[in-house]
Amino acid sequence: MAALIDVILPVFLVIGFGYVVVWRGLFSDAGVDGLMSFTQNFAIPCLLFRAISTLDLQQNFDLALLGSFYIGALAGFATGVIGARYLFGRGWEDSIAIGFCCLFSNSLLLGLPITERAYGPSALEANYAIIALHSPFCYAVGITAMEIVRNRGASMAALPGKVLRAMFRNALILGITLGAVVNLGDVPVPGVVTDALDLMVRAALPAALFGLGGVLYRYRPEGDLRTILFVVAVSLILHPAIVWVLADVNALSVEATRSAMLTAAMAPGINTYVFANMYGSARRVAASSVLMGTGLSILTVWLWLAVLP
Questions:
Q1: Exposure pattern of 206-218 as b/e (b: 16+ CB <10 Å)?
Q2: 113 with 103: CB under 8 angstroms?
């Protein structure tokens, strides 16, 4: 119970506050859009840039850690696609979008603050190693699968270009890439610049959590309940369960296991709706899965925290 009160509830209270003020008309939709644009396109990319540029890549890019997390993510994607197609009779494009919902956990807005509150700032290095590949990996998988489905029988020669263009329009991926360039190239960053970036970073997560609450108010569940519950089950139960097994098989350290498990246990991220909207497929399922998964993760994350070492 202490973990629920001390670790999880403060994060969800900020989300809930954003939800309530938008619901009661105290904060406008335009304000939510502006806040999310600021956090997603500027503040969080600054956070990722700072984290990746200072991360000890040699120590933290552990193949066992990344393999445990991303094999679980791919299993979730495959389960989502197959389930949507053969259990719920959705078309292939909808099925890919639903699979993406099962693939893309909310590693940033939920995974980082919950891990930090549970285990302290020093526990976040493995989180950042996972996050450094998260958007590039998930978008590469999702866009590639969707473009293959949409271009049945057509030449695949243009596919790599389409995937790369779509990925590098994403500000999160640009922040990660620039951070890696600075880190690997040992590029000096002036102190005045890092101080300015740190000001942006301090605003990133609280503002994003508040804005997420406002966004979730828009996406109240409407229909497709069985499919939505299926996505939520894959995201909150199957993915972390697979990571738990693989962490044991790969003999991950306690710290790496905690980061991988908690990141895997997060609800679908808002980028799942961005992806579904980009292709006009399964938008209602994506939006409602984010909302329902975020709400239910209050309990499921508490249970995962209880079993973690």
A1: ebbbbbbbbbbbe
A2: no
Interval 45-57: pLDDT, tens: 898 899 889 887 6
* Amino acid at the residue 211: G
Question: What gap in Å lies between CA 258 and CA 273, rounded to an integer?
Answer: 27
What pLDDT is recorded for position 269? 87
The mean pLDDT value for 161-174 works out to 76
Burial class (CB in 10 A: 0-12, 13-18, 19+), 2: exposed
Owner of token pair 């005045």: 192
pLDDT of 261 above 90: yes
Nearest to 240 by CA among 66, 114, 73: 73
Distance CA 205, CA 23 (A): 21
**Contact (CB, 8 A) for 18 and 27:** yes
pLDDT for 222 equals 65
pLDDT above 90: residue 147: no
Tokens standing for residue 13: 């209270």
* Closest C-alpha to 215, from 277, 173, 141: 277
